[in-house]
Amino acid sequence: MQQPPFSAQRIEYIDNVKAIAMLLVLLGHAPGLNQFAMNFIYAFHMPVFFFVSGLVLTERKLALPLSRFIMAQIRGLGIPYLFFFMLSYLYWLPTHRLAAAAQKIGPITWWEPLWGLIVGSQQAWVVNAVLWFFVCLFMTTCIFFIAKRFFSAGFLAVVFNLLGLVFTLVYVSSWPRWPWTLDSTLIALGFYATGHYTRGYLPQLTNLSRTRVAIFALALCLGLLAGTALNGKVDLNLLDFGKLRLPYFVNAYLGIFALLFASLLLPSKRALSWIANNTIIIFPTHLLLYSLFTGIGVILFGWPHDFKESSWIWTVVFPILALGLSYPLSLILTRCCPILFGNRGPHANIVPQASSQNA
Fold this sequence. Notes:
The chain has helices at about 15-30, 35-40, 45-55, 60, 65-105, 110-120, 120-125, 130-150, 155-170, 180-200, 200-205, 210-230, 245-265, 270-275, 280-300, 310-335, 340. The protein has about 350 residues and is mainly α.
């Protein structure tokens, strides 16, 4: 009897999904990236993180008392968020005026990011734009946990996606942003709920033949290419849903499942497992490293501030250097801050409540 093409005991492909998504984030934020490539990546690179976070949420964690669950999120997301905010803020204080002058924007007072930290608004993200994700994931996870006490995963997947779709269609850019990224959370809940609902179908996915998986991955990717050309650039953080808006969710799911199927085809690699295990460090530090690389070019070599936009070479060099420096940075942080980053096994997540080993 032919053995199923994928092991049902371990699902390393979830690590592959997270690692590739992390690489796409590095590339999507790299300077000089081709506009269409950026649009393609942005169509799904953040939704996939919310999807996987819901995918690895176990019933054991859902059975916890609310207070214990929230405390787990504070330890796993809230405290790292505060740590990386302060790290980013200390870097931003002596460098932001130079950056503001180079980009010809008005200076920001020293206290504005601190106020943004309290209310969870855009002022806080000026020190490090990716920090919004920590807050959004925290709110998404806690809201879903409470809702799951009363409704099924399938019902929540339908309701949250419908709410998100309505919001993308009616949202006006002049609206004030909601505190603690609750407006982005309204969109993220759909992806998170769908991920948790999809969890029940993982055995069926792992029993598909490699040929079918490859066909599905290719077809979904081609669909996303067409959808990206149709809808243009989107950004979940900035609530930019593209030219037509309606394809936003369609494109996101095309990308999510294309990546999921593609990851089924990839073998388990130590490098990918390491990236997946260290997303909580790579994710909030890569923009700081990009800024550092720019500062080195400007101050040490006298290059113009926009040198990084001059060639595709920098589009490749910045992510490679950032990923390379993430390794010693990870060693330092896990040793100096073991409470935050220590004891993260080979399948640890940016989401602390579950591992892909027992998903």
